[in-house]
Amino acid sequence: MKYDVVEQIFNKYSTLRKFEHLEIDVHFCILDKSEQVQRFASQPQEVMLGKDIRVSFPEFIGKEDILQSILQGQQENFELAAIRRTFDHQSDIYINIYIISEPKEKSSLMILIEDVTEKLKIKQDLLKITNAANLLSMTLVAYKNYMDTVISSMADALLVTTNTGKIKKINLAAQKLFDFQESELINQPISLIFDDNFLLLRIINHYSKINRDLQHFEVVCRKKTREKVLVAFSCAVMQKKNEVLEDIIYIGRDITSRQRREQRNNAQYAITRILSESQSIKQAMPEILQAICQSLEWDVGELWTTSEYISTDVPEDSEDAVLRCVEIWSSRVVSVREFKAVTWQTTYVPSVGFPGQIWDRRSPLWIKNILDYDDLQRSPTAVASGLCSAFGFPILDDNKILGVMTFFSRDVQPKDADLLQMMVSVGSQIAHFMKRRQAENELLESESRYRDICENANDLIQSVNHCGHFLYVNRTWCKTLGYSAAEVAQMNVFDIIHPDFQNHCRQMFYRLMSGQQIEQVKVAFIAKNGQTVFLEGNINCKFAGGKPIATRGIFRNITQRVALEEALRHQQEQTEQLWQARLPALTSNSLQLPTDSTHADVTYVTVLCADIVGLCEIAASESAMQLVNLLCPIFVTFDYLSNYYGLEKIKTINDVYVVMAGLPTKRPDHAQAIAKMALDMQTAIATFNLENQQNFNICIGIHTGSVTAGAIGLNDIINIARCIESQSLADTIQVTPTTYEQLRDEFSLEPQGEMEISGQENITTYLLRGKKIGE
Q: pTM for the whole thing?
């Protein structure tokens, strides 16, 4: 066994080994030593025969039990490894101490000491290298995990392919973008998702020519569902030391949304430009269909409506409407001849088919896959033509639907809510264009009709600029005043205004230019033949940007009426003179009462004043002869009633009818006779309105007073009656308190309120309603 231990110690390493030795007895004293053993001792001078080994080698202190155990044969050996010795003037060394027993008869221990400084140094260096390698490995693993985390959490898609285009790695973003699982893409060609089959070749050629990576290029890609997406890629080429291309790294970002936003903006701009340049909806619609298809990259566009062509004249009740296609545009890259032929022959009712459902819902509709949509009339032909997706929207004027526009695409198109929202606005924009064009056409027609009306009107119509020069006169104006169009163009309006009206017209012109409103004007023009032509009408001023542009006037020739009014005024003056001459005689004779009467100098008289409301306005709108013919029956009836009740007609001045009772013949029922005539006058007006389809009203005022000899006080009575009449409401009879006292027993009256009389205190008036029942 002892030799096995020794063999184990000496053959521990494959290299040649050198040992120093010591032999100690049972008391741990040195019995024998080798020549160089002291150089390993802690106290070299103490390594002497007979000395305790624990002095020179303190490592044995505390190991006495182990040494005794080896001496007694209980333990074969003991080893102290890598003991460090530190010296002041030389490098530290490391030793291993091996303790083995001698034969029993010797009762001693053999101690072998080996210098392991170099071996331990090598071992430590190897350990450092191993630790460094382990640390590097851990760092690489951590970095790999970190990079895997980064790649997995990247928002951009990452693909790594070989130089032949086979996919080696993809990240989670790429899986989500293209709707593929990782296992479905690994070792598959990149052409599975790239529409451009020559992209890989272009990348390699680009790198070979300029030795630079290809940056920021856009590629149309396909999802697993064959839906198109636009991806902006940057590409990096991994190269080996021998300049052989190994891997290609693609980093891409989905820019489909940006592309669609740009497409929508382009479509909106194109539609706005088309509508601004088109003269009619029939000219605009083919261009709008083409613009939408080309801007949004759709292949077929249609317009459906219920009439021959789209218009605003659509019946409100559209339940029985029949939709037919009136316009189609298709791209040249698709063959849809059969689909278009079927479309031209197809009609829909609301809620049936693709256009019919949009018409019925009045809202846009999107079909991702035509195969999943039930349109038995056109779906098979659409699929056979390679069409896959569709969308449509209504053209709405408020809630009134005018038409439907539908579009088809060969590609699978996911629903785009923003596009549908924009197309709703486009539908409203088209409807507004149609309404605006219709309004413009109606305005042109209206202007044409207005010019025809102006030219053929019996009234004189003129327009004058802010300097007074004529801008327009109608045919009647020229005919009435005798001036030609050429002469009018050279004239100023103030050149032909009569001198008596010059100042008034200039003031009125300046007031109009300053923004004042003038309702009724009367003016006199000098005709070409020198005659004075009197005109009456309305005039206003047109402003633009706060500045006056022109005055516009519409006049009626009242020359004959002015002449007739002058003749009537002259005749009334003559009648007034005759009445004033007659009145004193009548009153003086009637007031010659018996001298024994206590009231010999007082006569009581009741006066009635009546006025037809609005007669001045009626006179302004009718000719003189028409006015005479209209009013003659009324005044004839009034004259008849005056004679019937034995009343005295005083005069008719400025359309006020005046009668009195009590003069020249005294009568006690003067107030009652006037009241009866007033009621009959109301009845006569109502009958006249019914027979002549008129709406005349009459106001009547009645006052009772006393006169003395010479008719003193009669004018006051007439004036009070006229004042009561002028303040009365239409179609009423108002009486003063003195008349009320005469009538209250026989007639129905009710208080009306106080009324102001010029020069006197306010008086209370009463409304005459009629005779009391039973009277």
A: 0.48
